[in-house]
Amino acid sequence: MECALLNGLVSVHFETDCLGILRVIDEPEDWPVFFYGVRYFTGFRARFVLFSISHISRNNNVRADRLAKNARV
Question: What is the structure's pLDDT at 69?
Fold first, then answer.
């Protein structure tokens, strides 16, 4: 999100293969342990003119999954 904003993108759609993230975003009160992460996320999300996020299966997200795994190594 930060990279998108730094590159001037204000209308974005993100996709994630992690349903857990979407649950935390949709029902933050059910996940108090993630309070500060949700607050950080919400702060960034508010800076976009248009923002959406949805689920995509991992099979349809192979390249992004591979990039994320390589970035952690």
Answer: 86
Domain ranges of the chain: 2-72
Q: Computed over its alpha carbons, how large is the radius of gyration of the chain?
A: 13
The mean pLDDT of the chain is 92
3-state secondary structure the chain: CHHHHHCCCCEEEEEECCHHHHHHHHCHHHCHHHHHHHHHHHHHHCCCCEEEEEECCHHHCHHHHHHHHHHHC
Quote the pLDDT of residue 72. Answer: 82
Compute the distance between CA of residue 17 and CA of residue 56 in angstroms, rounded to an integer: 5
Q: Over the stretch 19-46, which tens digit does the pLDDT of each residue have? A: 999 999 999 999 999 999 999 999 999 9
